[in-house]
């Protein structure tokens, strides 16, 4: 019998990615509201390190999800679930989400590499800085990080809208991801 939904591993990773993205957006607003660092004010280190760690973890989770999805492909959705243009829109939405996650995570890491603030992965492994401190490059990658993050939020909103559409139609598409 063919698999009806996604593998349990793919489902867990999908929801892990969703939670990471949600927390990364919430934490970014929190971080930006904090006063600028100084010798006396070093408390920004914890939220920034946590944000960077979640971003790196998100990138690793995406790589794992893509591996699992390629190795364990679910059966196609029933034809009654969507018209052909909807299948193409869903595929484009997924590709855009994946590309934007990579762009947001890589630009954030590169931005951080051009500052004096290093990145320690989960406070265990010191990650390399790829360049010396350079405010212009930091700002360039910060801008890319910002705009790709907003684009990701827009595409995720389309993704959630599509999921709600299928949930209200009760056509089985959402059930495939929840089993």
Write up what this structure looks like:
The protein has 179 residues and is mainly α. It has one domain: Fumarate Reductase Cytochrome B subunit (Up-down Bundle), CATH 1.20.950.20. It contains 5 helices and 2 strands, in the order H-H-H-E-E-H-H. Strands 1-2 form a two-stranded antiparallel sheet. Helix 1 packs antiparallel against helix 2 and helix 2 packs antiparallel against helix 3. It starts with 7 loop residues before the first helix and ends with a helix.
Please name the defining characteristics of this protein.
single chain; 179 residues; mainly alpha; Fumarate Reductase Cytochrome B subunit; 5 helices; 2 strands; elongated
What does this entry show, briefly?
The protein has helices at residues 8-32, 45-71, 84-113, 135-169, 173-178, and strands at 119-121, 125-127. By secondary structure, it is mostly helical. The two termini are 16 Å apart.
